[in-house]
Design brief:
217 residues, alpha+beta, Glutaredoxin, Glutathione S-transferase Yfyf (Class Pi), Chain A, domain 2, 2 domains, four-stranded mixed sheet, binds glutathione
């Protein structure tokens, strides 16, 4: 197993939950540091030195920052292949894993941000409010698409093995619950989510998320 020093900068409830679960899957030591998004800590010079885009997550590997959920999951899967976070030996399965995860990052996350972070799209309060309704509809359409994916065979989203896709899907599940969306409307995804939430790595990630120290160095 590699011996790099790993440190995840994250915020509770954010997309950083996917790399947090992935880190727990590795069984390797790592540190975590909470970034207070509500207080704007992600825009403070100390954090911008680590991630100039001012977003979480960031993973530092021996002090070198890697940003973007997809890049972090890719790094962990390759550096710790025993974790089987991604189907590295099967190019077609791997393509399907990236198909889903890049859609999560480029479309589902962006749809959610239209509701949760309207300031990214407009300054004017009326325009922000006008963005909310189509944003909710766009986000709901993406959830229906995840339900379609979850109807596939096997206990996990890609079939027989738990992968980074399942970890990333939990992020979106939590966002749906935060928006008080009726997740019972997605029975196949609900069943796969319940299985994921019962996984020891996910339980440990939830625990780590709630007890992680704050403050950027
Ligand atoms: N494309 C980035 C998106 C990261 C992102 O938008 N993170 C959110 C939390 S889920 C964030 O840092 N928001 C803080 C802000 O917008 O100021 C990724 O996939 O890592």
């Amino acid at each position: 197993m590699p011996t790099q020093a790993l440190k995840l900068y994250f915020a509770p409830g954010s997309s950083a939950f996917a790399p947090l679960i992935a880190l727990e899957e590795l069984g390797a030591p790592y540190e975590v540091q909470r970034v207070d998004l509500a207080a704007g800590e992600q825009r403070q010079p100390a954090y911008l030195r680590i991630n100039p885009r001012g977003r979480v997550p960031t993973l530092t590997v021996d002090g070198e920052p890697v940003t973007e959920v997809l890049a972090i999951l890719t790094y962990l899967a390759h550096a710790y292949p025993h974790s089987e976070l991604l189907p590295l030996a099967d190019p077609l399965k791997l393509a399907h894993a990236y198909e889903v995860m890049s859609w999560f990052a480029s479309t589902v996350h962006v749809a959610f941000a239209q509701i949760a972070r309207p300031e990214r799209y407009a300054d004017d309060e009326a325009v922000k409010a006008a963005l909310a309704t189509p944003g909710e509809a766009r986000f709901a359409r993406t959830l229906a698409d995840i339900e379609r994916l979850a109807r596939g065979s096997g206990p996990w989203l890609l079939g027989e093995a738990f992968t980074a896709v399942d970890a990333y899907a939990l992020v979106i599940w939590r966002w749906a619950q935060r928006r008080q969306i009726d997740t019972d409307a997605y029975p196949a995804w609900s069943a796969k989510t319940a299985r994921a939430l019962a996984r020891p790595s996910v339980k440990r990630a939830l625990q780590r998320e709630s007890t992680a120290p704050a403050a950027v160095p």
